[in-house]
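User: I'm writing a tutorial on reading structure tokens. Could you give me a worked example: one chain, its sequence, then its tokens, then a sentence or two explaining what the tokens reveal?
Assistant: Sure. Here is the example chain.
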Amino acid sequence: MVRPLALAPTSFIAGSLLFPVELAGYDDNYQASSQTSHEVERRRGNQCFQDASLIAAALRPQAATVRLLEDVRTLKRAAGGGLSAAALAQALRGLGYEASLACSSGSHSAPSALRLSHEFVVVRGCGAGGPLIVEPSFREHFAIGSLYATERYRQVLAAVPEELVAPYSQLCEMVRLVCAEMKFSFGATGNSLPPWRSVNSVLSRWAAARE
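And here are its predicted structure tokens:
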């Protein structure tokens, strides 16, 4: 039985990109259909490692981005693991990069057009042929509650890089791949995909990069 879709919450859990309705134990009356989950997992489980490799290949850093990616990781470690987009942009400018802060505006006018607000860094002039999107915590955007994550999805998520430096086109490719796996994971556990987890809504976080 498919679980009724909860309304999109107005805020995230503090310090996390998980929505409250996606946290394990949030709804004590709900029990996932383990039979459905195990059956679908059994049919597709052999593809897990192959798909994880494909996703890792899709996000393999380009030659022009390797140095920038290393600098992002160094700055993140120096900050104790947590670094806001604004602080990262400032730190990168201090290293000589042409870095700026970009902001995508959110909109909740309709579930089908749900747009998510987000701040991220854009770096230009790295010889990559165009601007690069820099995300210090890219994997967090695809984290879902344990009630909804199949073993297959957990392996796919592990292949998603924690830090991302990529052109918009490459980011879009990755988002589409992971969101397709996320949709399958929700369905395999007997749940509907929340509208804020659709590929268009997730991509809306970086809409400012193409404007």
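What the tokens reveal: The helical segments are 34-44, 48-58, 66-78, 85-94, 151-159, 168-188, 199-203. The radius of gyration is 18 Å.
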